Prior knowledge:
The protein is mainly α and 177 residues long. It has helices spanning 5-22, 33-41, 44-49, 54-67, 72-81, 84-102, 106-118, 122-144; strands at 158-159, 165-166.
Amino acid sequence: MKLGWLPIASALILISVDxxxxxxxxxxxxxxxxxxxxxxxxxxxxxxxxxxxxxxxRYRLSAYLVTDPSVLPSVQTLISASASADRSAIGAALRIAxxxxxxxxxxxxxxxxxxxxxxxxxxxxxxxxxAGEDNSGAPLAQSQGKGxxxxxxGGALLDGEWRTKLADPFKPVPIPN
Length: 177
């Protein structure tokens, strides 16, 4: 009778060890187990909680994925329950999670990438591609502009040391070499 708990305890230890190895990020960057359990049980609850906030959806979902990549089946459910406007944020979350897992857990990153490629939804794939373009261009721009002051973009209206003078709207734009 006393050996009845031994197989259960062994299984729990193996599950917890497996869960620790699945995580791509440090403890401080992980989502809580309660949040993960809630997401797995009801993926659409994430959409209800973060109504119309695509940025929060993107980063919250990527946090779930880097904490435990085994929640990918719930992401499939989330995609089918989401509006087309939210699907691009889901695709971006997949790309962000893949990028964060690449250096620490390449197998998890590959799993996320394969999942994103299998998705048949064009909005998800567009968000995935767009997030990749944003991330891939950043290191290139930083390496090209080292030591050079980058001009302010977006048509700065104010100029001067304290930004108190009106800028000349007809001033020629510097052309990069």
